[in-house]
Amino acid sequence: xxxxxxxxxxxxxxxxxxxxxxxxxxxxxxxxxxxxxxxxxxxxxxxxxxxxxxxxxxxxxxxxxxxxxxxxxxxxxxxxxxxxxxxxxxxxxxxxxxxxxxxxxxxxxxxxxxxxxxxxxxxxxxxxxxxxxxxxxxxxxxxxxxxxxxxxxxxxxxxxxxxxxxxxxxxxxxxxxxxxx
Length: 181
Prior knowledge:
Blueprint: H1 10-32, E1 37-56, E2 60-73, E3 84-94, E4 97-107, E5 113-119, E6 133-140, E7 147-153, E8 156-157, E9 168-180
Antiparallel strand pairs: 1-2, 1-9, 2-3, 3-4, 4-5, 5-6, 6-7, 7-9, 8-9
Keywords: Signal
Signal peptide: 1-31
């Protein structure tokens, strides 16, 4: 069977190329507009679930906590906005020891993640309103690969949650200074 060859005009090829570029160029431009450094105020709206607790008679408790929530950028920007937050923590209230340490992962709608640790004994005295502790950003994936920074934070207790299980709620405002290297 003979092969039929379709002859295309130069104008037709140029039109097709323009159509392809019209689709690809905005996506590439958007990927390049990700900031590499910034300061971002955001709040995480957390629900805390106690997993296990050890009573220390006469001295206090040690409690494993899981925290889940969502983030809200306070300037309406994309960075650190509408991300899911998942943290594991140890809360110690025993004698003169009273602190919470842990680690968190934030994930955006693309599945890219930011990792951090936190310590309520590490308070940034230059930001007196952020008197609850500090997150240290330890890395990330995807668009956040190479991210590092610090996040002094405050703790705002919310009303008691209905139902059993000892769940509590808290808003955690952060002042984040970050850089992607």
